[in-house]
UniProtKB/TrEMBL annotation:
InterPro entries: PEMT/MFAP, Phopholipid_MeTrfase
PANTHER family recorded: PHOSPHATIDYLETHANOLAMINE N-METHYLTRANSFERASE
Subcellular location(s) per record: Endoplasmic reticulum membrane
Name of protein: Phosphatidylethanolamine N-methyltransferase
Gene this chain is encoded by: Pemt
GO MF, one example: phosphatidyl-N-methylethanolamine N-methyltransferase activity
Tree of life domain: Eukaryota
Reactions mediated catalytically: 1,2-di-(9Z-octadecenoyl)-sn-glycero-3-phosphoethanolamine + S-adenosyl-L-methionine = 1,2-di-(9Z-octadecenoyl)-sn-glycero-3-phospho-N-methylethanolamine + S-adenosyl-L-homocysteine + H(+); 1,2-di-(9Z,12Z,15Z-octadecatrienoyl)-sn-glycero-3-phosphoethanolamine + S-adenosyl-L-methionine = 1,2-di-(9Z,12Z,15Z-octadecatrienoyl)-sn-glycero-3-phospho-N-methylethanolamine + S-adenosyl-L-homocysteine + H(+); 1-hexadecanoyl-2-(4Z,7Z,10Z,13Z,16Z,19Z-docosahexaenoyl)-sn-glycero-3-phospho-N,N-dimethylethanolamine + S-adenosyl-L-methionine = 1-hexadecanoyl-2-(4Z,7Z,10Z,13Z,16Z,19Z-docosahexaenoyl)-sn-glycero-3-phosphocholine + S-adenosyl-L-homocysteine + H(+); 1,2-di-(9Z,12Z,15Z-octadecatrienoyl)-sn-glycero-3-phospho-N-methylethanolamine + S-adenosyl-L-methionine = 1,2-di-(9Z,12Z,15Z-octadecatrienoyl)-sn-glycero-3-phospho-N,N-dimethylethanolamine + S-adenosyl-L-homocysteine + H(+)
Amino acid sequence: QVDVAAMVQLFGYVDVTDTGFIVAILSIAFNPLFWNVVARWEHKTRALSRVFGSPRAACYCLGAVILVLNCVRSHCFTEAMKSQPKLEGWDYHWTYYSGLAISAVGTLFVISSFLALGFTGTFLGDYFGILMEEKVTSFPFSVLDNPMYWGSTAIYLGWSLMHASPAGLLLTAVVAISYTIAVLYEGPFTEEIYRRKQKGVKSK
């Protein structure tokens, strides 16, 4: 059962009307919305591929923009944490090192996901017509689905614990929710792309 009193105490440290906090939430929500809208638009129109001369060049450009937006999101997240109070009783070595360990695991998942998928596999190459030969099942995909997303969430969780930040924990929950929605939105569409590929192969 959820300890309501503990939850009230935790969020009593968070000023949800703070400008920096609101900006952080908007940046968290904007990123997956942006890349999904742009990638689907590209899949439907091939406009970016025409502008940049090839699907691969267009995918690399979108990937670079996503990386910049992720850096902006992380900056907004960190600034929102720093502007709000720390949680009393959490600002100790055990909390810091627990957060550090969680961030390390998250970083492992993010980096290993990127190495397994490659740049175009990571940054929505499927939507540009750059399809993988087969589904990746090696680590970390052998451990959990969407390890890039959950690894990123773990990094934010660890970062929040390292700062003993209730605001960071709340923002981490927003990250998790935004990624959950993104997975529900992306998963079926990506599966349909590969289903059409299989149909095309069988029809030849």
